[in-house]
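Page header: ASSEMBLY MODEL / two components / 1002 residues total.
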Amino acid sequence: MSKTFDTLKPYLDKAMAFATARNLFEWDDQTIAPYEAAEYTSKVVGILSDEYMKCLINDDVRKLIKKLKEDKEQEELTDKEKAIIKELCKTYEQLESIPPEEYRAFNELTLVANRAWTKAKKDKDYEHFAPYLKKIIEYKKKFAGYRVKKGQELYEVLLGDFEECFGIKDLDIFFDKIKKEIVPLLKQVANKSDTIDKNYNFLKYDLDKQREFNRFLCGYLGFDFNRGVIAESAHPFTLNLHNHDVRITNKYIENNLESAMFSVIHETGHALYEMNIDDSLTQTPVGTGASMGMHESQSRLYENIIGRSKAFWIPLYDKLVETYPENLKNISLDDFIRGVNKAEPGLIRTEADELSYPLHIIIRYEIEKMIFSGEADIDKLPELWNSKCQEYLGITPENDAEGILQDIHWSFGEFGYFPSYAIGSAVASQIYAKIVEVMPVEDYLKEGNLTPIREFLRDSIHKYGATKNTNQILMDITQEEFNADYYVNYLKDKYEKLYNL
Amino acid sequence: MSKTFDTLKPYLDKAMAFATARNLFEWDDQTIAPYEAAEYTSKVVGILSDEYMKCLINDDVRKLIKKLKEDKEQEELTDKEKAIIKELCKTYEQLESIPPEEYRAFNELTLVANRAWTKAKKDKDYEHFAPYLKKIIEYKKKFAGYRVKKGQELYEVLLGDFEECFGIKDLDIFFDKIKKEIVPLLKQVANKSDTIDKNYNFLKYDLDKQREFNRFLCGYLGFDFNRGVIAESAHPFTLNLHNHDVRITNKYIENNLESAMFSVIHETGHALYEMNIDDSLTQTPVGTGASMGMHESQSRLYENIIGRSKAFWIPLYDKLVETYPENLKNISLDDFIRGVNKAEPGLIRTEADELSYPLHIIIRYEIEKMIFSGEADIDKLPELWNSKCQEYLGITPENDAEGILQDIHWSFGEFGYFPSYAIGSAVASQIYAKIVEVMPVEDYLKEGNLTPIREFLRDSIHKYGATKNTNQILMDITQEEFNADYYVNYLKDKYEKLYNL
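Prediction written out in full:
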């Protein structure tokens, strides 16, 4: 037992309480809060955020951390405590160098910028957003500049905030591989798009029946309704207060069967991660996923690799047909599986199929890299976007709303975030390759037995929270570090079969 | 502009933020939080409560308040600021004298006591709860003892926490009047109970139709859905984050048409109060109702005086019949009005009709008074309860669950709270008598025009928040202080007509 750590604990608990409250306000805002509440409620959330910062970033905590890093103190720390100190150091590294008045000005800017982005997207008018985007980029460069090491790229600093295991070099290798293998594959697939008919997906599907079936699906995957809830929001998301309160949302669209179904599988993947974090870690700085990419690997493993497989649907498909006999009675399970895996290059990332998805990420990654190396002219980003879109996806946006303005992230200053989505897909493939090795996973899926998979993920990933990083987890499971070959092979194998290439 | 007040403001804002967060957790807990969340979430709420206390009760704030009470400072304060200081002084008076370790021990005790009460009520076993109740009463006596003035009763201190305008003397006069006039009236009515048939109320009423009709009713009364929401919970309640986010809940029962309908009218009465508090007061210590009793006057004015009147239902009843033609097509509006006003002595306060309701309060008031004067033997409370129940209502509970154990309040240490319910009904009658004088209210109701009533209440009560107390409000509206005659006359008049006495 470290006395110094015990002195630190009340600060951590307080920060946890403020962060949890902020999360609850976020949940509430996205799910139920009345329209006019925001202006007054934001004052509350602002104060909670300030208090969160103040109780973590202050001289007392700074001294305690410094002391805890001494050899003598380290000896007395448990692994969990060491991981907590490491997380805290990361937070200090990210925030401490930024002068508070600049941080506040930046946060105020993003509020305005986000509104400008909303309007610009609605009006399909990039020029309206460009001045805000320029200012945001200036701030991000400045902030990264405070922390950048000699010879390091600014963009590297930003990437590091989301994934400690993936820098520019790793991502360049990863994405080059994708470009080389997937771009030509997607072109072949696009030419054979007509061979798969999925009109059934766009018939009318009663919303209450969708709610009921998707709730069933969520429980089928192992979501524990005593420790979580499902609500509705404009965009599906997962949010947790702690490991005994994990919440997901969904959005039901009458003329789209797939949309809510694969959203719920995706969010349940995130939720199972948070629900299975060890009780001893929840409500601490390491009581969450190892990284954004690791989290996304769990949602995508469930959504794509498991959720779009025939084996998974064998015990489920009859129930789905019984729910909507008028639409599905003539659609065989094989038709349905072909339908949910149909790939077709489109302009919108969030609607992209599994095959084109990583190409959407590459467009963003390459543009972000150019922005922070100074190679990109911000006024000319739409042209840059459109040309990359044509190059990788073979199509060109007709306007900025379906091009450069489609994602919200930049309006909040989130640069370096997108690659995690693709990392997640690749990590999922690498892990799944191991699962196939250690258990008869297809048989389990066919029997409707999800427990062995869930327990494998719990025991090798979830329960550790953020006490291990992505590469440590991958090493412990697969005995190798991140390896994108599994992902490329998975996609090639799947789509070559599906389209008889 | 007072500089001293400006120095105080950040403390108030912080306290407001913590209190708002606590409110949101309360809302969430009652409406959506998953079953197992409580244990972990209570840690968060505990920290927020501690922080709330710490930022209000400390030497800096103490000094500022002391300074602000000086004559020179008072001159610079606006009325709103003076009212805020007054509220703060009340909080100090209530909390400062209690040693923090006793306060904490008491809060821990109430958590356990509440669980014991739940079990005792379920098992109809007062003896299980008695030891906890004794301890709670000891604490309450001790805490009141720290603040009691010479010659003052302990119970007077507790009453003052809820209503600054009503002490034992006032309540004795009030309740004696009720006993004298209402107890005999209720006996007459009970003998003629068979003359009103309300079987229609207990037929099957589709829950979704109830939800829809009650939402309509809520909007009809003036609830602004841009600034509020309706959800569901085990017991209906109203909660606000600020005046632009006011929330009510309802509970729908399939075999009871009235239950949800009069609940929504009641809660909308509370909600209109909070929604109409002035923007300049919300998120300050005076940004809420003047008192518990004043709040309850608004909910009861809408629920009972307006909501159970024929004039109110004239423009609405057809819609209700159209919603449930199978049950209501043969029930005339007059039948319906008789049904919703039917009085029948029962054992449960929360299910009581308008006429017997105050008698339920008198039972509790008299017992609480005896507890704190030392006249009551805690082990013998069930007998005391039952004899008073027989005396005032003419019936005796068969077990403790429908007697002494029915209400949750004492398990939380809330003594002195019940009288506010009856004060609310009486204040409502006094205010309504004035409304009848100043506007053709029945005509408005018949036309479906609720606006003049709503605006009257907004302009004479709601907008002031807690900057005026109950008697100031009553004086300004009715040119007299609290006068229970209006209430007694209202009840006598209404029930003598209804039962042809």
